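fyi for ur records
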Amino acid sequence: MITLTDTATEKVGQLLAAEGAEELALRVAVRPGGCSGFSYEMFFDGDIAADDNQTSYGDDGKVRVVVDQASAQLLEGATLDYKDGLDESGFAITNPNATRTCGCGSSFS
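which gave:
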């Protein structure tokens, strides 16, 4: 299962609050495609399947992350971080399972 840093947890919580959709969860998935075989997908989702892996983050546990069973295997040990600086800005996944990445850094095999 993927782990969120404190910074990513805070940003996801802010986005959920801004949308007025605090009942939703952040879905992180791995899909076939991308120049190196797979790509990451993240979106807010209210349709949680019984076999989805769920983890809560934050002091209040309001930031929920869900991952489907197939993606969970590929995201084991991965970390989602958020950076807001001059060099880098946005969410980034660090995945120890990625043996190759493309130039954009969003796919692996």
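DSSP finds two helices and eight strands in the chain. thats all i got for now
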